Amino acid sequence: MISYEEARRLVMEQAKILGREKVNFERACGRVSAEEIRSKIPVPPFRNSAVDGYAVRSEDTKAADLPARLKLLAEQPAGEYFRKNLRSGQSVKVMTGAPVPSGADAVIPVEEAKEENGYVLVSRAFRPGENVREAGEDVGRGQVIIRPGMVLKAPHLGLLAACGVGKITVYRRPRVAVLVTGNELCEPGEKLRPGKIYDANSTILRALVESSGAELIFIKRVKDDFNALVRELKTALNRVDVVLTSGGVSVGDFDLVKETARKVGAREIFWQVAQKPAKPLAFYRAKAGRRTAWIFGLPGNPGAVMISFEEYVRPFIKKLSGRFDFWPREIAAVLTAPVRKKRGRLNFIRVRLEESQGAWKVSPADRQESGIISTLTETDGLALIPAEADFLPEGTKVKVHPVEW
Ligand code: AMP
Ligand code: MG
Fold first, then answer.
1. Residue 373 — pLDDT band, cuts 50, 70, 90?
2. Which of 5, 49, 235, 297 could form a disulfide with 249 if both were Cys (CB 3.0 to 4.6 A apart)?
3. What is the CA(183)–ligand 2 centre distance, in A?
C-alpha cells in the first residue's frame, strides 16, 4: 500500500494539457487562458473626466483670482469629442467619461461650480490633474493583461473587453464520465424497496465534476455485472479523458472495477492508499485509440467519494485544464479538540474552520465514518492527521485543506 504523498505524486505526474481552442467571451467564463495577451490600446483610450463638471485650465483658478469667471464654450456628453483647444478664461462642460479637451487639465465638479449667463464661477483653487483620468492610467499600451494558466472570471473578461479583445485561446476542458456501480442503488424519488438505498454518489459526482471546470459528458448507473461494466467502461474511455467509477473497488465478492479495468487494457498505477477514508482508491491509465484516458476507481461510500475527489480528482482536473494553482490550498490550524486514531494511515478529518485573533482553529465533526453523509454539509475543510500519529492533543497544529465542493 502506498502513502498519500506518493499517491498524489503519481496522480499529478500523469496530468498534461489536452489541447487548445479559441472561444468567444460568452463561452470563456471559468475557462483557463492558454495565451499571453497584451493590450493593443491604452485604457482609458483618452484623457477623460472622472466627474460631471467643467473642464478648465487649473491656472485659471489661482487663489488670487477667485472667484474665477470662465466662459462656457460647449457641452460635451460622454461619447463626443471637442476638437478645439481650451484657452485661458474658457471652460467646457463635460460629463463623466467625456474627453477632457486639450488645454484643460482639471475638472470642476458640478457641485462646486455655479453656471450663470454663459459663465462658470469657481470659488476654490484646483490642482492640475484634479478629477482627470489620464489615458492609459488603467492599462498601458502593450501591457500584459492575461497570462497562460489564469482562470477567466468576470474581472478578467471585463479587462479583456475594455482592451477591445473579443476572443481568447483557452485550454480544452477535460471531458469526464461517471460510472456509478452497485446493485443496491435506486433512483432518488422512486419507491425504496427492501435492501435498496438511494444513489447519492451520482448526484454528488455531478456537482463535484461541474464545480471542477471539467465537462461532464455522462453519468450512468451500472449493475455489479462484469460484462455490463466492461461494456460501459469501454464506451466511456472512447468518449472522455477521465472516467470516475464509484463503488466496487474494494475487496468484496462483487467488487469488479479492478477486474474490469484490467479487461479493457488499462494499466494500474496504484490501488489502495494508506489513508482513511478512501483506502481502496485506484488509479489507472488507459489507451483509447491514440489518446490517453485515466480512470479513478473511487470507493462507494459517499464520504470517501467526496474526500478522494477533493484530494486527487479536483487537483488532477485543474492540472489537466492548464492551471498552475492545482494543489489544494493548505493552511495551518489549531485543533480545538483532541484527535485519536490508529497508526498507519493518514486520516482526513472533516472540520469546521474558524478564524480567531488572526489564527485558524478547527473543530472536528462528531461523525467521521466514510458512510456518513450528514456531517459533510458542515465541513469547511479536511485536516490531515499524519499516518504515524495516534493521538494529537487539543492545541496541536495541523494542516488543513479547505474544501471547494
Ligand atoms: P462498495 O465499495 O461498492 O462495496 O460500496 C461501499 C459502501 O458504499 C456500501 O455501503 C454501498 O452501499 C455504499 N454505496 C456505494 N455506492 C453508493 C451510492 N451511489 N450512493 C450511496 N451509497 C453508495
Ligand atoms: Mg458496491
1. very high
2. 297
3. 7
Closest CA to 237 of 290, 181, 179, 294: 294
DSSP 269-287: EEE-BSEES-TT-EEEEEE
From 181, 257, 301, give the residue whose CB has the most ligand 1 atoms within 8 Å, as the site to mutate. 301
Which atom in ligand 1 lies closest to the alpha carbon of residue 201?
Answer: 19
The number of angstroms, rounded, from the C-alpha of 220 to the middle of its chain's C-alpha atoms is 27
Cell readout for 38 is 497584451
277: cis peptide before it, omega within 30°? yes
Q: Where are the domains of the chain?
A: 4-18+172-320, 23-42+141-171, 48-133, 331-402
CATH architecture of structural domain 4-18+172-320: 3-Layer(aba) Sandwich (3.40)
Taken as a whole, the chain contains a residue count of 405
pLDDT score at 206: 98
One DSSP character per residue, 167-189 reads EEEEEPPPEEEEEEE-TTEE-TT
| Distance (Å) from CA 198 to ligand 2 centroid | 13
CATH architecture of 331-402: Beta Barrel (2.40)
| Beta-bridge partner residues of 292 | 287
In the reported structure, the alpha carbon of residue 301 is separated from the centroid of ligand 1 by a whole-number distance in angstroms of 5
Determine the 3-state secondary structure of 333 from DSSP. Answer: strand
Question: Alpha-carbon distance 77 to 95, whole Å?
Answer: 5
Q: What is the pLDDT of residues 376-397, one digit of tens each?
A: 999 999 999 999 999 999 999 9
